Amino acid sequence: MSGKPKLHYFNGRGRMESIRWLLAAAGVEFEECFLETKDDLTKLQKDGSLLFQQVPMVEIDGMKMVQSRAISNYIATKYNLCGKDLKERALIDMYVEALIDLNELLMTHTFKPADKKEQHFATIVDKATNRYLPVYEKVLKDHGQDFLVGNCFSRADVQLLETLLMAEECKPDILAKFPLLQSFKARISNIPTIKKFLQPGSQRKPPLQEKDVPKLMKIFH
């Protein structure tokens, strides 16, 4: 299990997407092994590849890693994306954990029943614009630097950009009241490794469509 990291997941975003983003941001090439059927998942479960019987799973450095936060922590540490000291790492972790909460809201919208979608959308917009985005706008304003922590590119910047783009897919004008986040988005999007990942044909996945949900249900349920 040497060479490029190998990512085991379905051919879509889900909890693997942030891992794809991190690897891409670090300039690391990776391979993907897509789960197409329930049997694909069962095979991994039976051969002992999945410690807790679930994906995402990433083969990296001789390990078969599961649990998306653990995988992301490992990648961020390996490629120096987690700050220069313990305090910076704590800040990065706080920012990332909050973004994961918002990400979860955005990711689950497609799965909501039709009669719950409107309320769920309202919840997304409310929490994004009143709880989460103002914090990152204030962080950028208070320290006046290009990045969220220590004026050095970190996994917090990667996670924030991913989440901002997802939020805009949900509501295109969601950043209207956040000029510093708009500037941040443009700035981070132009980092060469990220710019490459944002190009058509990259391993970045498109938003999940409702038509894809039944196929996922057959794999995972």
UniProtKB/TrEMBL annotation:
The keyword rRNA processing does not apply. GO terms for biological process: glutathione metabolic process; xenobiotic metabolic process. It is an enzyme of class 2 (transferase). PROSITE patterns: GST_CTER, GST_NTER. Residues 85-208 form the GST C-terminal domain. Its EC number is 2.5.1.18. This is glutathione transferase. It comes from Pandion haliaetus. The gene is Gsta1.
